[in-house]
């Protein structure tokens, strides 16, 4: 084998890849994400959250030149489409109606985490393109129905487009900091209707006797993590589902990535009643301010009118303004977020289907859907909450 030859290797756990080598690749990306850190993905496995029993069979694809790791990505073989937030149930149904197996399929994603960011970690564009091609080759070799890369960044999209994958667009809602000095300054930028509504919602929470405290990193106490998990698990169970993530996952976050987390706790009469957990970008260096905050999880043990809005939007946005955070991403879906000044942002996933006829049909569908997304974005732009839209 020539020294310059690229070799693709697939391993069954990120634990088989050196953390320093993986994180060095992540540091090369233009938008490094805390959700792609070695510790985050390892915690998904080790905690029993993203494991074969829950339908996430890990396969980490790596690309090497000699002993040098040039590119890598997380890949999961899945017998269902839960926990992805890019919905392909109709595709699976069409396969079944024609007597074909859609599952297992291959998914390149961060499990249960609909946050845009790099998925193909690579030292350069050539290595990223080679990794995209290696993914298609692997799926063909394993006779999988399809390959899906979810919530990609621009570099991934370019590599996948070059490799012949189809692009699919969805909409999320993100808040951009325009340099406001305080929350009142932010409110002043909104239309009178939206400004009045937010003030009314915040007043309802205050008048209910609810106060908030926040803690970041190692200031989040073990009992705070325990309380948060009670809230998180209860919210899932109220919707008839077990929680995706285990308590052990959040313990790993507290132990391995503490500076990546910000917790808000709502208290009434000195008793905690609700909480929301926010993820933060950056490498966790002491004193470093994040550029991006990500709304992730929330839950409540008591019902208070407008408490969800306060815990998940107004408290985090106020914190972002005070700490100079440039962007707050509100998670998947949620047109109601525009009333809180989170604006529509297009996100992209990339797809490959092995069956030529189905690939042609999906491509035509994506063309129609894409046109609908563009129209939807235009419609939302006309409903801007800002005064001088």
Automatic annotation (TrEMBL):
<protein>
    <submittedName>
        <fullName>GNAT family N-acetyltransferase</fullName>
    </submittedName>
</protein>
<dbReference type="Pfam" id="PF04339">
    <property type="entry name" value="FemAB_like"/>
</dbReference>
<dbReference type="InterPro" id="IPR016181">
    <property type="entry name" value="Acyl_CoA_acyltransferase"/>
</dbReference>
<dbReference type="InterPro" id="IPR007434">
    <property type="entry name" value="FemAB-like"/>
</dbReference>
């Amino acid at each position: 084998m020539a020294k310059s030859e690229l070799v693709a290797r697939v391993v069954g756990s990120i634990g088989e890849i050196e953390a320093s080598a993986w994180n060095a690749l992540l540091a090369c990306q233009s938008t490094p994400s805390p959700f792609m850190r070695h510790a985050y993905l390892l915690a998904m496995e080790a905690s029993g959250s993203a494991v074969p029993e829950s339908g996430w069979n890990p396969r980490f694809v790596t690309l090497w030149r000699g002993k040098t790791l040039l590119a890598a990505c997380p890949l999961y073989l899945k017998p269902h489409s839960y926990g992805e937030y890019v919905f392909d149930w109709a595709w699976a149904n069409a396969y079944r109606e024609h007597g074909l197996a859609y599952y297992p399929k291959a998914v390149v994603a961060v499990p249960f985490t609909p946050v845009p960011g790099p998925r193909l970690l690579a030292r350069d564009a050539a290595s990223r393109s080679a990794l995209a091609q290696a993914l298609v080759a692997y799926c063909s070799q394993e006779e999988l129905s399809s390959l899906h890369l979810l919530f990609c960044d621009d570099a991934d999209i370019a590599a996948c487009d070059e490799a012949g994958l189809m692009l699919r667009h969805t909409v999320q809602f993100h808040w951009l900091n325009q340099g406001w000095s305080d929350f009142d300054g932010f409110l002043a930028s909104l239309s009178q209707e939206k400004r009045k509504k937010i003030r009314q919602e915040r007043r309802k929470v205050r008048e209910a006797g609810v106060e908030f405290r926040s803690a970041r990193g190692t200031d989040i106490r073990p009992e705070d993590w325990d309380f948060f998990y009670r809230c998180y698990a209860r919210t899932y169970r109220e919707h008839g589902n077990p929680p995706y993530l285990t308590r052990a996952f959040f313990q790993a976050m507290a132990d391995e990535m503490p500076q990546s987390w910000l917790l808000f706790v709502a208290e009434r009469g000195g008793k905690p009643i609700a909480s929301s957990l926010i993820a933060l970008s950056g490498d966790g260096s002491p004193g470093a301010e994040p550029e991006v905050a990500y709304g992730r999880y929330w839950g409540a043990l008591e019902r208070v009118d407008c408490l969800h809005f306060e815990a998940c939007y107004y408290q985090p946005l106020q914190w972002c303004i005070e700490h100079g955070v440039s962007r707050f991403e509100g998670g998947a879906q949620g047109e109601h977020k525009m009333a809180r000044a989170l604006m529509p942002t297009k996100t992209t996933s990339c797809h490959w289907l092995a069956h030529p006829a189905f690939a042609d049909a999906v491509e035509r569908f994506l063309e129609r859907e894409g046109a609908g997304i563009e129209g939807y974005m235009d419609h939302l732009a006309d409903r801007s909450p800002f005064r001088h839209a």
